[in-house]
């Protein structure tokens, strides 16, 4: 009987909800536990904004000790790395042998040059990041001991400690100790600006002459900076900023306007200028100023001419070469610089370091430069030579193949890297086999990793294993 009543009750519920437009209410959203740390992407639509903000706050609190642990571990690794059984010994003064290097200020211990390389690989970072982090850790550990203690006990976050360590790296031991003392006793909130003020105060107290020198340098803090982080949204663009004397800045501004107006005029053969904005032409004008002779001629004759040769690596398919040559006027085309639509379909090309681009943009970049065509490199070629150093075409083939240093995670370009033999080279005169130097036996290694492979091969193999494991995990 009870079963019949339950069935009738269910029928009544269904009949009730059929009369309602909205149907039954959705199941209640499960309550969020304050212990949740990892967000399930498939579950994110069930989270409200407050819960997400709380989650991010919990993650921040959880990550803070890990940031501190990186510094503590970096100092410990630096101190004990030379005692590893496979670490390359430091012997003699031969500059080609592994050596101890200074990563922190006076008074901090020197570091085995391979230690920051292994630290960087463990963190999935590049060599420079490893050196920076290890140097900051040693700066804190040995030259800012009070700040180090506050870091280790959780009273100062790692990012603030690293900011301060960066500012004291070039200070004498006496001034650094005074900075450490002032940071400990200050009642001000510890920020980057506060640290800068305390560094200046320590200099005034301990080294007035150095304080005066720095103040004079700050008054003449001029410069030009290329932003390599590229926030433009396109690999074919870059940001350049400058700090000039005010009269020079005003004169440059006037010159850029003058050149931009010249570029906006019709060409002598009657062609209209590129449909660019005035600011875009100003940017082109600044590039023209990279060649003073071409800029002077343009300002005098109001006619642009090719600038001095520049090395820009442009890779394009053979079928598109005729189109590109016609657009640039290098081949049988008329060289009028008009749109690629008049010469064929613009399938684009790849500019090394800048990424894919249209042929039209490449043409605009190169129209003021002398163009040198180089033979096409067969990437499947494995021609061998007996000499130790690869000939330029072979080195170029390996560079194009590898793009960067072949150690996973190292971002250094292959164009500036050494071409290292995978199997050690033995001169044929000393019994070595012929044909050792060939693309399949060459790798691009940045100088730091090349030195480590040469002088600490077991540790280098361990570094490679860890880097490959990190790559697979990612």
Write the layout of secondary structure elements.
Blueprint: H1 2-18, H2 49-80, E1 100-101, E2 111-112, H3 115-123, H4 127-143, H5 145-152, H6 158-168, H7 173-185, H8 192-206, H9 208-219, E3 223-227, E4 239-243, H10 246-263, H11 278-288, H12 292-301, E5 314-315, H13 318-328, E6 349-351, E7 355-357, H14 359-366, H15 392-402, E8 418-421, E9 442-445, H16 447-455, H17 457-473
Antiparallel strand pairs: 1-2, 3-4, 5-6, 6-7, 8-9
What is the number of domains? 4
Largest beta-sheet details: 3 strands, antiparallel
Percent of sequence in beta strands = 5-15%
As residue ranges, the low-confidence spans are: 1-5, 16-21, 331-342
Query: Structural class of the secondary structure composition?
Result: mainly alpha
Fraction of helical residues? 40-55%
What is the residue-averaged pLDDT? 80
Q: State the end-to-end distance.
A: 61 Å
User: Tally the helices: what do you get?
Assistant: 17
Would you mind describing this structure in some detail?
The protein is mostly helical and about 475 residues long. The chain has 4 domains: about 55-220, no CATH class; about 240-300, no CATH class; about 315-365, no CATH class; about 390-474, no CATH class. About 50% of the residues lie in helices and about 5% in strands. The chain is built from 17 helices and 9 strands. The strands form 4 sheets. A 3-stranded antiparallel sheet has the order 5-6-7. Strands 1-2 form a two-stranded antiparallel ribbon. Strands 3-4 form a two-stranded antiparallel ribbon. Strand 6 (about 350) and strand 7 form a beta hairpin.
């Amino acid at each position: 009987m009870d079963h019949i009543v339950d069935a009738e009750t269910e029928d009544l519920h269904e009949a009730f909800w059929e009369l309602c437009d909205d149907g039954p209410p959705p199941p209640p959203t499960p309550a969020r536990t304050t212990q949740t740390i990892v967000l399930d992407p498939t579950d994110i639509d069930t989270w409200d904004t407050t819960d997400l903000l709380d989650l991010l706050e919990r993650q921040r609190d959880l990550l803070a000790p890990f940031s501190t642990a990186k510094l503590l571990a970096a100092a410990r690794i630096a101190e004990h790395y030379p005692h590893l059984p496979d670490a390359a010994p430091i012997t003699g003064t031969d500059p080609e042998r592994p050596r101890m290097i200074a990563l922190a200020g006076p008074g901090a211990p020197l570091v085995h040059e391979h230690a920051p390389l292994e630290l960087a690989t463990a963190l999935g970072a590049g060599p420079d990041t490893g050196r920076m982090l290890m140097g900051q850790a040693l700066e804190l550990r040995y030259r800012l001991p009070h700040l180090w203690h506050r870091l280790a006990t959780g009273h100062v976050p790692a990012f603030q400690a690293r900011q301060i360590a960066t500012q004291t790296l070039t200070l004498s031991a006496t001034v650094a100790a005074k900075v450490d003392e002032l940071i400990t006793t200050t009642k001000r909130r510890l920020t980057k600006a506060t640290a800068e003020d305390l560094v200046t105060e320590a200099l005034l107290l301990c080294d007035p002459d150095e304080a005066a020198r720095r103040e004079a340098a700050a008054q003449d803090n001029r410069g030009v900076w290329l932003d390599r982080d590229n926030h433009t949204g396109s690999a074919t663009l870059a940001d350049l900023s400058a700090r000039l004397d005010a009269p020079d800045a005003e004169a440059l501004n006037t010159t850029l306007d003058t050149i931009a107006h010249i570029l906006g005029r019709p060409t002598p053969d009657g062609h209209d200028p590129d449909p660019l904005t005035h600011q875009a032409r100003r940017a082109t004008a600044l590039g023209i100023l990279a060649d003073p002779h071409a800029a002077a001629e343009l300002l005098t004759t109001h006619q642009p001419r090719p600038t001095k040769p520049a090395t820009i690596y442009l890779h394009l398919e053979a079928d598109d070469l005729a189109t590109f040559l016609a657009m640039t006027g290098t081949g049988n085309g008329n060289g009028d610089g008009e749109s690629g639509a008049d010469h064929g379909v613009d399938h684009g090309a790849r500019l090394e370091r800048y990424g894919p681009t249209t042929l039209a943009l490449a043409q605009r970049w190169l129209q003021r430069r002398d163009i040198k065509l180089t033979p096409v490199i067969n990437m499947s070629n494995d021609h061998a030579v007996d000499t130790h150093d690869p000939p330029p075409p072979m080195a170029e083939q390996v560079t194009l193949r590898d793009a960067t240093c072949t150690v996973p995670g190292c971002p250094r370009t292959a164009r500036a890297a050494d071409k290292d033999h995978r199997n050690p080279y033995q001169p044929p005169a000393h019994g070595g086999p012929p044909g050792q130097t060939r693309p399949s036996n060459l790798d691009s290694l940045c100088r730091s990793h090349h030195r480590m492979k040469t002088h600490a091969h077991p540790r280098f193999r361990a570094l490679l294993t860890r880097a490959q494991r990190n790559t697979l995990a990612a």
